[in-house]
Amino acid sequence: MPLKLREGDPAPPFRLPRDGGGEVSLADFRGRKLVLYFYPKADTPGCTREAQAFSAQRDAFAAVGTDILGVSADPVKKQNSFRDKHGLTIPLASDETHAMLEAYGVWGEKSMYGRTFMGITRTTLLIGPDGRIARIWPAVKVDGHADEVLAAATAL
Length: 156
Hints:
thioredoxin-dependent peroxiredoxin; Thioredoxin_domain; EC 1.11.1.24; redox-active center; 28% strand
């Protein structure tokens, strides 16, 4: 599934419910760098490793003026359970309507084990303090990914 967005494009605005209650929006991060990572399903092995890696690096990201937000189509209740079960320290947003996921081009047809279904392609974006997309990682491989994103955030 090809991404609709390109590096240099303005990040599409969003407002989503988040773990712990309340909402989170792109405007909340104005003037700071934001790692926006999309994961297919809370509490699955790859998504858990990715969330744990970003949580472990949270302080290092903060030291270079960068926030982190994970987004999936899971309901907030599932995000809360995921956070609590694995001791995650980064905010998790829920897009059950898929509107934001579609705006970012990460929701679409996927196939696994010969079955076709709709879902999220694991993708990460680094958004600059100006609200523009500085870097895109499509079809992310989890191992080592948080370190690679931290290096890019540090260089930005």
